[in-house]
């Protein structure tokens, strides 16, 4: 992957100069490349991929050890080579994250309210937010787990109260907006690069796609996905989503060709494409066309 590293000094690739945190980036790599292709990767391939992003072998091995200790990865030794896959517990989390990235649900139109005395004793999980000692509120997304107590649906009546101010204070929307803005700043040049005359090499395309996923995943997972009426008028989530979808689709053909030659499992090179990667790409293309 030295070719990719050598091209990071100019143009769009300059945005990749800042190295990501090793554990979080390894999680991104498994979610985007490894898990949909069978889930097991040789440590040497992992080290080579991370080196392009400024993460040396020592950092990678330490991060992998910590992920194993945290129950996120499992190691298998075959001969002299070590391979790692996601643990069963981590796979469920990855499926939910993949759904948010590749097939996100429509924005909710109303809210959930929960009235319960048990809220006085425990902090509700995100995106639930406590409004008073025994009242919590959450966007009515289909993946929001209900709390124990009296559960109700609620709809904001326009003109009654400042919903924007409530949402901004309760869910810290300024921090979410900043994550989206940073994503847009780092990756806004990708579309011009993809439309340019000089094609991206497969190694560079994969590196760019991994950082695209890494940064967008960070922003999207911090987003409580509130009803649009609760968000500021200049809410950057829509622009970030459009950039992610267009850039991911544009980078995928060369990126996946590189995966099919350079990423090794116990059975040989990972598949460049399979049913799961084609499904993800189909969903994004369909979204881009709407």
TrEMBL record:
- GO BP, sorted A to Z: DNA-templated transcription
Q: Could you name the domain of life of the organism this protein comes from?
A: Bacteria
Q: Which residues form the Transcriptional repressor PaaX-like C-terminal domain?
A: 171-259
InterPro entries to which the protein is assigned, alphabetical: PaaX-like_N (IPR012906), PaaX_C (IPR013225), PaaX_trns_reg (IPR011965), WH-like_DNA-bd_sf (IPR036388)
What sequence ranges are listed for the domain Transcriptional repressor PaaX-like N-terminal? 22-89
The name this protein goes by in its record: Transcriptional regulator, PaaX family
Q: Which source organism? A: Salipiger thiooxidans
């Amino acid at each position: 992957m030295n070719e990719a590293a050598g091209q990071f000094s100019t143009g769009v690739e300059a945005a990749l100069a800042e190295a990501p945190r090793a554990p979080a980036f390894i999680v991104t790599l498994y979610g985007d490349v490894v898990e949909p292709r069978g889930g097991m990767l040789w440590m040497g391939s992992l080290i080579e991929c991370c080196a392009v992003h400024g993460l040396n072998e020592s950092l990678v091995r330490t991060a992998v050890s910590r992920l194993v200790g945290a129950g996120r990865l499992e190691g298998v030794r075959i001969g002299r080579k070590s391979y790692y896959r996601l643990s069963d517990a981590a796979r469920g989390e990855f499926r939910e994250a993949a759904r948010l990235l590749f097939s996100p649900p429509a924005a909710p139109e109303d809210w959930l309210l929960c009235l319960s005395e048990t809220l006085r004793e425990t902090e509700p999980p995100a995106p639930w937010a406590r409004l008073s000692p025994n009242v919590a509120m959450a966007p009515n997304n289909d993946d929001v787990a209900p709390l124990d107590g009296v559960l109700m649906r609620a709809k904001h009546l326009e003109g009654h109260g400042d919903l924007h101010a409530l949402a901004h204070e309760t869910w810290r929307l300024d921090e979410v907006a900043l994550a989206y803005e940073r994503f847009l700043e780092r990756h806004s040049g990708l579309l011009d690069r993809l439309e340019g005359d000089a094609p991206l090499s497969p190694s560079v395309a994969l590196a760019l796609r991994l950082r695209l996923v890494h940064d967008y995943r960070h922003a999207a997972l911090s987003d409580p996905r509130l009803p649009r009426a609760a968000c500021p008028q200049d809410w950057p989530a829509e622009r970030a989503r459009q950039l992610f979808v267009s850039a991911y689709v544009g980078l995928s053909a060369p990126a996946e060709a590189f995966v099919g030659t350079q990423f090794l499992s116990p059975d040989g090179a990972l598949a460049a494409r399979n049913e799961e990667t084609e499904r993800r790409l189909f969903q994004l293309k369909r979204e881009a066309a709407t």
